[in-house]
Specification:
Elements lengths: L4 E7 L5 H12 L3 E5 L12 H5 L11 H12 L4 E7 L4 E9 L4 E5 L7 H4 L4 E6 L2 H15 L4 H23 L5 E4 L5 H16 L1
Parallel strand pairs: 1-5, 1-6, 2-5, 6-7
Antiparallel strand pairs: 3-4
Length: 205
């Protein structure tokens, strides 16, 4: 498939990356597919649940970026891929995969996709969603408790132990690789309109 537009959307946990990606996808329907970096967390089948709970999931080494890069190249070349599925309640990949068909526009979203130079080289447009740390923390607590089966204490411990320090070490510096900085993600209507117009142009080509 020629002229495929690959868009990377990065930002801290709870910044609004998924909201932005979903709004763009809903605007263009079948012309867009979304690939989530979280699904490319490395497998840890040999570790117990207790051991997996103690891993650092907020550093670049936690991800299988080579597999993601391979899948993006396949999508760009017009081939479908079987994307892994990560189970947050188990802190491990599930045995399921999701078939992703090649589309005119591929959106990749994740906290650390810009920390990898190899991944950045594949993105035609790099968007960093910038949201206040307090807002991100509140969103993370609400999401992890409601959707991921976590309790409040574990969410706060993980935030203080790895999420916040890794954000400062890896995520925040990676914004320098972005082409566009978007405050408040999918709620920023001006930025959304600009990005939408770029995608509309790519879809028509």
């Amino acid at each position: 498939m020629s002229d495929v537009l690959i868009i990377g959307i990065a930002g801290g946990s709870g910044s609004g990356k998924t909201t932005l990606a979903d709004r763009l996808a809903s605007e263009f329907g079948d012309a867009v597919c979304i690939v989530c970096h979280d699904n490319y967390y490395k497998r840890h089948d040999r570790l117990s649940y207790e051991e997996r709970c103690k891993l650092n999931y907020d550093e670049p080494a936690a991800f299988d970026n080579e597999l993601l890069r391979c899948h993006l190249l396949q999508l760009r070349d017009g081939h479908a891929v079987d994307c892994p599925v990560y189970d947050y309640t188990l802190h491990n990949r599930s045995d399921e995969t999701v078939r992703i068909e090649p589309k005119k526009v591929v959106i990749v979203e994740g906290i650390l996709i810009f920390a990898s130079a190899e991944l950045c080289d594949l993105f035609d447009v790099k968007i960093f969603v910038d949201t206040d740390a307090d807002v991100r923390l509140i969103r993370r607590i609400m999401r992890d408790v409601a959707d991921r089966g976590r309790d409040l204490d574990s969410v706060i411990m993980q935030y203080l132990g790895t999420v916040k320090p890794m954000h400062e070490r890896y995520v925040e510096p990676s914004r320098r690789r972005a082409d566009i900085i978007v405050p408040e993600g999918g709620k920023n209507l001006v930025a959304l309109e600009m990005i939408t117009e770029r995608i509309r142009k790519a879809v028509k080509e």
